[in-house]
Amino acid sequence: MALPRLMLADDHTILMEGFRKLLEPQYEIVGTVSDGRALMEMAMQLNPDVIVADIGMPLMNGLEAGLRLKQQMPTTKLIFLTMNEDPDLAVEAMRSGACGYLLKTSAPDELIRAIQLALKGKSYVTPQIARGMQKSFIKNPSVKGQAKTLTPRQREVVQLLAEGKSMKEIAHILKVTPRTVAFHKYRVMEVLSIETTAELIQFAIKSKILVK
User: Fold this and answer.
1) Do residues 158 and 200 lie in contact, with contact meaning Cβ atoms separated by under 8 Å?
2) How is residue 139 annotated by DSSP?
3) Whole-number Å distance between alpha carbons of 194 and 154
4) Tell me: the pLDDT tens digits for 99-124?
5) Which CATH architecture has domain 5-137?
6) Bridge partners of 124?
């Protein structure tokens, strides 16, 4: 009988290798990646049963990558394993189609349990986060509403700018011209009534486009 196929995404290599060793006896690890863009590209090729991903990854955060993948691969199960204890972020993850949200400080058997439940079509949220999620479900901060008005490409540009990438570097990553990047940047600043790059970075953090 074939083992369930898992894919791991985390920019901390040592942690990812630890997860691999924990999971390999029960699952087939078909691929590992260290950034959100690579996650999107490889997941589409490998079509895993379950993706276990960090949220705070470079180039594209795991939340954004996961949301896009769920639109393209609705049957693939998505579990977030992160250091971020923000219940608002957990709510956003579950609303985006995730079926699990755990902390990297959770017990190892929690991750195995979350994967088992995901394969059965069920969800799991680590208790430390679940307690704070109820209030978050009824919140609707205006900054998040503003973020949702941005296009996927605009969100990519904002995250990369917030990571400190130059216009030229972003153009290379996105395979567009620097002029196109500049257009997206200034269009976002116009829509959000933002005047400086520093304000744009603050917006990226508050709206969870950039996840630390």
Assistant:
1) yes
2) -
3) 14
4) 999 998 888 889 999 999 999 999 99
5) 3-Layer(aba) Sandwich (3.40)
6) 100
